[in-house]
Design brief:
It is built from 3 helices and 8 strands. By secondary structure, the protein is of the alpha+beta class.
Length: 158
């Protein structure tokens, strides 16, 4: 297991009882390097939305547990936040909760000369994601290999 994956897994295990005690759930945990700096990001969620107070309470308790466990030798910045309205759907559990919702799929390489697609998330399995698109009042299902998807996220409808 890669160092990054190990850190994310251990951080998620420390975070689980903290978010539960605060009436939240873990959406995602990521350990990433950006611009020469490391970040440990915890995204939390709950049915009626995450408040700044939720983020603050989870962050304080999580920071204490991380200091006690001290398993990440690199200096890093801890961030706790909501995944946001246009949240990325990275894991199968995210896709499951979003079936029937409108999503935006961006691919690494063009498909029919386009890299961005919007449609309703209809299905997924371990290898593919299917969305229903509409063009010129005609609907069709598009099936994408997960390996071809750069990002899939909920669309923002204003």
């Amino acid at each position: 297991m890669a160092k990054k994956d190990s850190y994310e897994e251990r951080a998620e295990a420390l975070l689980e009882p903290i978010v539960a005690a605060n009436g939240c759930e873990i959406y995602d945990v990521e350990y990433v390097k950006e611009g020469g700096n490391w970040y440990l990001r915890a995204f939390i969620d709950k049915a009626d939305g995450v408040s700044i107070v939720d983020c603050e309470n989870v962050s304080r308790a999580f920071s204490e547990k991380l200091d006690e466990a001290d398993f990440i030798p690199d200096a890093y910045t801890l961030e706790v936040s909501s995944p946001g309205l246009g949240r990325a759907l990275k894991k199968d559990r995210h896709l499951e909760k979003s079936l029937g919702d409108e999503v935006e799929v961006k691919t690494y390489k063009p498909i029919d000369r386009q890299k961005e697609f919007i449609g309703v998330l209809k299905a997924y399995d371990k290898d593919t994601v299917t969305i229903e698109t509409e063009k010129d009042s005609e609907t069709k299902d598009m099936v994408f290999a997960k390996s071809d998807i750069a990002i899939i996220r909920l669309t923002l409808d204003f």
